[in-house]
C-alpha cells in the first residue's frame, strides 16, 4: 500500500515537473517566433497552433525518442539550403548522434539506360518521361530507411548522379540520431508523411524558383529546349503533387531568407531545447 502511494506521489510530482518544463519551453520558443515576425524577411511564415506544444512535449516526455522532421517544397525552393544551415547550427554541439540527414534526391531510380537509349535529355523528355513525379523516386525504400533509423538501426542510402542518371546502391552510411532531417520533393507524399513528427513546407515565389532552377539545371547538363521541357513539367507536377502539401504542413518556411539568418534562428531554437534542465 505504501509503495503504491509512493509511486502515485512520484508520478504526480514527475508529471507536474514535466508540465512546468513544457510551459517554459513553449514560452521560450514563442519569444523566438515573436522576434522572427518583426524581421523584414521572417523565417517562419506559418506555424500550426499545436506545433510548439507538441515539440515541447516530445522533448520532455520522450527524451530517448527520435525526432523526424520532413521538409518539402518545390524544386529549387531552398529545401537543401535550409537543411544545410540547420545542420550548421546543430554541429555547434559536439555531442555525437545529434542529427542524420536523408535526402529524397538520393532515392531517384536508376534511369541511365533510358537516357543512353534516348541519346539526350531532350529526346528522353519527348517520350513523356518525367523526373518530377513520385514514380521517379523509390519512396518505399526511403520510407523503410527512415523507419529503420527511428528504430535505432543503421542504413546505407543510395547515391544518385544527376548527370548520368545512375543510382549507386552503395552510398553513404546513415546512423540513428536524436533528430532526423529528411528533405525533398516528396517527403510529405501521402504514402510517407504519416511517419513524420513535424512537416515543413519551404515557400518561395515562382519567379525566384525559376531563376534558381535554370541555374542548377545547367550544372546538371540540361540546357536549351531540354531545360525548357523539364521546367514546364516541374511546374505542372508541382501543382499536382507538391503545392497541396502546403495545407497539411505544421510550419511554412520562407525560402528567401539569408543563410546566416537560418543559422541564427535555428541555433536559438536548439539552444533553448538543449539548455532546459529536466
Name the average pLDDT: 88
Biggest sheet record = 6 strands, mixed
Shape: globular
| H/I helix tally | 10
Strand order of the largest sheet: 1-10-9-2-8-3
* Assembly classification: single chain
Count of extended strands? 10
Low-confidence stretches: 1-13
Structural notes for this entry:
With 278 residues, the protein is of the alpha/beta class. Helix content is 50%, strand content 14%. It has ten helices and ten strands. Strand 5 and strand 6 (167-168) form a beta hairpin. The chain is globular, with a radius of gyration of 21 Å. The two termini are 29 Å apart. The model is unreliable at 1-13 (pLDDT under 50).
Key traits:
single chain; 6-stranded mixed sheet; 50% helix; two-stranded antiparallel ribbon; alpha/beta; globular; disordered N terminus; 278 residues
What does this entry show, briefly?
The protein has helices at 2-37, 51-61, 79-90, 112-118, 121-126, 139-150, 206-219, 224-242, 245-248, 259-275, and strands spanning 44-47, 67-73, 99-103, 155-156, 159-160, 167-168, 173-174, 179-183, 198-203, 251-254. It has 278 residues and is an alpha/beta fold. A hairpin with a 6-residue loop joins β5 (159-160) and β6.
Amino acid at each position: 500500500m505504501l509503495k503504491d502511494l509512493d509511486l502515485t506521489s512520484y508520478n504526480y510530482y514527475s508529471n507536474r515537473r514535466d508540465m512546468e518544463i513544457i510551459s517554459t519551453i513553449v514560452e521560450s520558443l514563442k519569444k523566438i517566433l515573436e522576434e522572427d515576425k518583426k524581421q523584414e524577411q521572417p523565417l517562419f511564415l506559418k506555424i500550426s497552433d499545436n506545433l510548439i506544444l507538441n515539440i515541447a512535449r516530445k522533448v520532455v516526455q520522450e527524451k530517448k525518442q527520435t525526432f523526424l522532421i520532413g521538409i518539402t517544397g518545390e524544386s529549387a525552393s531552398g529545401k537543401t539550403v535550409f537543411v544545410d544551415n540547420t545542420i550548421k547550427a546543430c554541429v555547434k554541439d559536439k555531442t555525437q548522434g545529434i542529427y542524420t540527414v536523408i535526402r529524397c534526391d538520393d532515392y531517384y531510380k536508376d534511369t541511365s539506360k533510358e537516357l543512353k537509349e534516348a541519346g539526350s535529355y531532350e529526346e528522353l523528355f519527348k517520350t513523356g518521361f518525367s523526373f518530377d513525379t513520385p514514380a521517379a523516386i523509390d519512396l518505399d525504400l526511403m520510407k523503410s530507411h527512415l523507419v529503420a533509423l527511428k528504430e535505432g538501426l543503421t542504413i546505407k542510402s543510395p547515391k544518385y548522379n544527376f548527370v548520368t542518371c545512375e543510382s549507386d546502391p552503395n552510398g553513404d552510411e546513415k546512423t540513428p540520431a536524436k533528430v532526423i532531417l529528411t528533405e525533398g520533393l516528396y517527403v510529405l507524399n501521402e504514402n510517407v508523411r504519416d511517419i513524420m513528427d513535424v512537416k515543413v513546407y519551404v515557400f518561395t515565389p515562382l519567379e525566384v524558383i525559376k531563376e534558381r532552377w535554370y541555374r542548377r539545371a545547367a550544372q546538371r547538363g540540361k540546357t536549351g529546349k531540354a531545360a525548357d521541357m523539364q521546367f514546364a513539367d516541374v511546374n505542372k507536377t508541382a501543382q499536382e503533387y507538391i503545392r497541396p502539401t502546403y495545407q497539411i504542413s505544421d510550419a511554412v518556411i520562407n525560402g528567401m531568407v539569408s543563410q546566416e539568418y537560418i543559422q541564427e534562428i535555428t541555433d536559438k531554437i536548439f539552444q533553448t531545447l538543449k539548455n532546459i534542465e529536466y
